[in-house]
Write a structure and sequence with these properties.
Length: 320
């Protein structure tokens, strides 16, 4: 199957057409109309087989997760997604693989009304690159650099599920059903927190998505904002499937340092805590306060036994 047939198939597979996409697939470049009073938010993620996807990951899960991770980036800015460009490197022209990938990719794209408007395709090792375009009202985007000492630290959802699933795939953890399926779903099909991001953008002082691990990603906020923090480890929210194997995965290490959960970590001025919690009451995913920023340096961890230690550098680093 030729490159151009692949492209036609992808274009025909997608369920979304947006008015903001003035010109989509078919020309040398696409054109996007940005609504008045908004800023354009752009993010690019690259995913490689064997690095971002464990061996044996289904094509539909690759499609779904690559879209989810891209949506998570703009969610952390409080932005609303519009369109994506997709570049694929493939070792061979497998129509079955492309059909599976498109199914997962467009399943999530359709949910968030995201249109595929361009990209590229080439022969080579399996790799996926997604550039996502989103908009946010001018002056209202969340950034990593605006936290102040005394802000409260929140996270959405639960942490550590994807890390436990990866340990199971690597043969380091035995999981029974239904816990195994629940944790694998969190690894292969994470839920981007787009709605949460747009809801909190007028309350949060800083935000980041948790893709590389809580201490690593929170550390980026602290470094760029010039503050320190105390994190109360026993307040980190855990899912029931993770609780069932908590000791087997090494306790708090997994929720503190493993990535791929794609939850949001954000800071909120204490004066706005009541407003934020009233706004989010009863919504899913739930959010929980897990610490507070403070003047100084370092991320400190108050452990469940009351001891305090400085967090060591942790989280995923492609070149470490």
């Amino acid at each position: 199957m030729s490159e151009f047939h692949f492209i036609r198939q992808l274009n025909l597979s997608q369920p979304v057409r947006r008015d903001e996409v003035v010109l989509g697939i078919g020309d040398d470049a696409a054109m996007l109309d940005v609504p008045e009073g908004h800023h354009l938010v752009v993010s690019t993620d690259t995913f490689n087989d064997g690095v971002h996807f464990p061996e044996g990951t289904a094509a539909c899960d690759m499609g779904y997760k690559s879209m989810a991770a891209s949506l998570s980036d703009v969610a952390a800015m409080g932005a609303e997604p519009l369109a994506v460009n997709l570049s694929l490197s493939m070792p061979d022209s497998s129509e079955a693989w492309l059909a599976g990938f498109a199914q997962g990719f467009f399943e999530l794209a359709g949910q968030y009304r995201v249109q595929l408007m361009g990209g590229d395709m080439t022969r080579g090792p399996l790799g996926i690159s997604v550039t996502i375009f989103a908009t946010v009202p001018a002056g209202r985007a969340m950034q990593r650099s605006e936290a102040q000492a005394g802000d409260l630290i929140y996270v959405s959802g639960t942490l550590g599920d994807a890390g436990a699933a990866l340990l199971a795939l690597q043969g380091e953890l035995e999981l029974a059903e239904p816990q195994r399926s629940a944790l694998m779903c969190r690894l292969n099909r994470p839920s981007p927190r787009v709605e949460t991001g747009t809801l909190i953008r007028d309350y949060a002082s800083a935000c980041i998505d948790i893709s590389d691990g809580l201490t690593s990603d929170l550390g980026h906020i602290l470094e760029q904002s010039g503050v320190a923090a105390m994190l109360y480890v026993d307040q980190i929210p855990l899912s029931e499937p993770l609780k069932s194997c908590f000791d087997a995965v090494g306790g708090w290490t997994i929720p503190l340092s493993c990535g791929d959960d794609y939850e949001l970590c954000f800071t909120v001025p204490g004066t706005r805590q009541g407003e934020l919690e009233n706004l989010l009451a009863g919504r899913q995913p739930a959010v929980r306060c897990i610490g507070m920023t403070e003047a100084g340096e370092h991320l400190k961890l108050m452990m469940p036994d009351g001891t305090i230690k400085v967090a060591e550098p942790a989280g995923y680093d492609h070149f470490s």
